[in-house]
From TrEMBL:
One Pfam family linked to the record: DEDD_Tnp_IS110
Region (Disordered) residue spans: 340-388
Domain Transposase IS110-like N-terminal residue range list: 3-157
Lineage, opening ranks: Bacteria, Bacillati, Actinomycetota, Actinomycetes, Mycobacteriales
Species annotation: Nocardia jiangxiensis
Polar residues bias: start-end ranges: 362-371
Name listed for the protein in its UniProt record: IS110 family transposase
Low complexity: bias regions: 373-388
Amino acid sequence: MVIGVDPHKSTHTAAALNAGTNKTLDTIRIDASVSEYRRLLVWARRFPDRRWAVENAWGLGRHLAQWLIARGEKVTDVPSTATARVREPSRGGRRKNDTIDAAAAASVAALHGDAVPVEAEGASTVLRMLDERRTNLTRQRTRTVNQLHAVMRELLPGGVSTDLTANQAADALRRLRPSSPVEHARKELARDLVADVRALDVRLKANQQRMHDTVADSGSSLLDVVGVGPVVAARLLGRTGRASRFRTAGAFAVHTGTAPIEIASADKSRHRLSRHGDRQLNNALHTIALTQVRMPGTKGRIYYDTKIAEGKGHKEAMRCLKRRLADHVWRIMIADERRHTGRAGSAGHSGATTKSRAAGSTPHTSTSDQSLPEPATAQPTTKPAPAA
């Protein structure tokens, strides 16, 4: 029995679907409140062998999905695009209502395999929130600094240097002697902006420290990799979540947008840069690659120099390095996941494998910060990780 849920901000609609006959047996509509959640669960207990299919379980359905998981229920996430594919041919005429959407979510989970298991929130969720908070703080700081530069340009001939710090701006303001009420107002505004910049710097520093503590508490080995600091590690872990949900390192590379796309040509096969995938993860891998290239002696720099010697340009060599790093980072996260769960088959349920489809050698699960390892043999993730 599959119970599909179409969540909204104020109400949720559930439909119980017989997976064998694809027939809707019963429906219920509840308000979005804990007391109504309990009523929904009481209604669902008439179906002993049940699983839940929540549309957009990481969006409007997040609270209900996590509430159900905390009570031992099996919950899967169904993307809204998948329910639309089911609803359109079965109903036609673009008919749509909550009951139809709930039944479509259940149908997708039961028959089409587009549903993804939902797990209880943990460290990766915390890191993702911290990463989003840091992004917002950084943007706010940039806007404040730009405002400060504009005011200082009106107070001082030529303004100030672009690498201005809060202390330098404060020193410049102390030496400034306003000669009119307007300049007095500008100086006070500049002081307020300097105070805002300092406050934002304190918040950013605290945010980074919390990222470091959360990554360390999670047992991740990513901080041992050259170019991976607390901010990059938090982005990788927060946006990836459970690494074993990707069946191969190649699937992770596609998700991050580091896998090249093969295109047809008149006389030969060519590849182009992928502009799809998670751009935040792509940015994190680019940061790692750029850091390693700037550090002579690292294996990343050696690999980059090898590609340059083969005749590739800087951008091509960087894309090759990012592709290798995607494999390396994914395998580290797989190894950490095994150690954290305490069983070798932590990824077995998803059928993940450490075999890479990338051309050339691929990294293994070593956590050395100085290496892009030798070619890896094909190993399913249900086997113990090789010794570093």
